Amino acid sequence: MEIKKTQTGDTGILTLIGRLDAISAPELQKVFVEFIAEIKQVEFDFAEVEYMSSAGIRVLLAAQKNVDKSGKTMTLKNVIPEVKSVFEITGLLGALQFE
Q: Residue 20 in contact with residue 56, Cβ under 8 Å?
């Protein structure tokens, strides 16, 4: 997976490209933790994520917990139907904010 970081003011965007799985999830966790310290709002751009495993869900839920505690916000954008269905099947669609 490739992770691109961009920042405009206090909003940061993490653009994810490829597969969010057990191999790439630890790297996303690391990037997120470093990135969230610099911003108030984070957006995950999922337009080019073709697959997500339970490891990816775990990282996103931990990220949401982190931003909730710190008063920041987090949004998932451009999530393709195949990936969004993972959240629907697991009953976690309401746990994260989608746009």
A: yes
Partner residues linked to 96 by β-bridges: none
Residue 1's pLDDT band (cuts 50, 70, 90): very high
- Report the alpha-carbon distance of residue 62 to residue 84 in Å, rounded: 18
Question: CA-CA distances (angstroms) from residue 5 to 14, 36, 56, 60?
Answer: 5, 11, 18, 16
Q: Please give the structure tokens belonging to residue 14.
A: 């993490």
In whole angstroms, what is the distance from residue 50 CA to residue 59 CA?
17
**Beta strands 2-8; 11-20: pairing state:** antiparallel
- Can you tell me the distance from the alpha carbon of 89 to that of 99, in angstroms, rounded to the nearest whole number? 19
Instruction: Name residue, tokens 């996303």.
Output: 28
Helix (H) or strand (E) holding 31: helix 25-36
Average pLDDT for residues 56-72, to the nearest whole number?
95
pTM of the model: 0.92
